[in-house]
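step=predict obj=S-adenosylmethionine/S-adenosylhomocysteine transporter n=302
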Amino acid sequence: MDNKKLAYLFLVITTSSWGSLYVVSKFVLNTMPPITVLFFRYVIAAIVLFIILKRRKKDKIAKEDYKYIFCIGFIGYFVSIAAQMIGTKLANASTASIINAMNPVFIIMFAVPILKEKVTINKVIAVAASIVGAYIIVGGGKGGALLGILFSVISVIMWSLMSVLVRRVAQKYDAVTITTYAIIIAMIFSLPASIVELSTTKHIAFTAINIVCLFYMGIICTAIPHLLWNKSLSMIEAGKCSLFYPLQPVVAAFLGFVFLGEIINRRFIIGSVLIISGILFSIFSDNKNLKRNNNKEVKKVS
């Protein structure tokens, strides 16, 4: 399997894992505060990733790249995810989901000046189809507090910037190294925020189901997908990776139907078709362009 196909597989697994996070969160966030949940997610993920890192050859990070690893951990894994949780709490899930689906736009915006990636008509069509599809699935995002929308926008901007930074350093370092150190940084910053949160929260339940959910969120929704996302960014363009992001509401809505008894309606079907069509359009058009370029090279040689 070539790099692009493998990256596409990684991205499907990643977005599916992140999509399942919304369903699992329904169980644990009822009895535990959000930043505390985030802290335990990172503790579990950091342990798993550190064990993997210890078992393989480690990349030594150059001093001039410390700032990038710090920014990935602080901006991407701490500020962005914390802002996303706060935004979802202050606004509503639908509004936050729509804003979250804007990640491809911001990733491409950052990738153009920082990574010198090109904006093609195919990317524009794919992004537009995906965003419209996500908008249709969540039903337009009725309501939502202004402050919640602001936090959601901050989350999207910070995550997009982080993804571009990962693409930049992923050419030099292994994805396991980047992800492990970045998550440890995010875990450190989450700790004081969690302590403040716990001091103002009266009832916290560490039930069996909460513990199971935390391990699921730490391993399946954090360690594995963050690792695969960073690996994908080392293999293909950041703009191309971003096109898979709107798969999250599709997976979340489907799992909500299976495990929470939520209804799948016409909006879900139409939106899902648009999102998947946008991704497939981008993949197949990219393959056609590659074949066309290869044919041109063969003609030049002959």
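step=describe
The chain has a mean pLDDT of 84.
step=end
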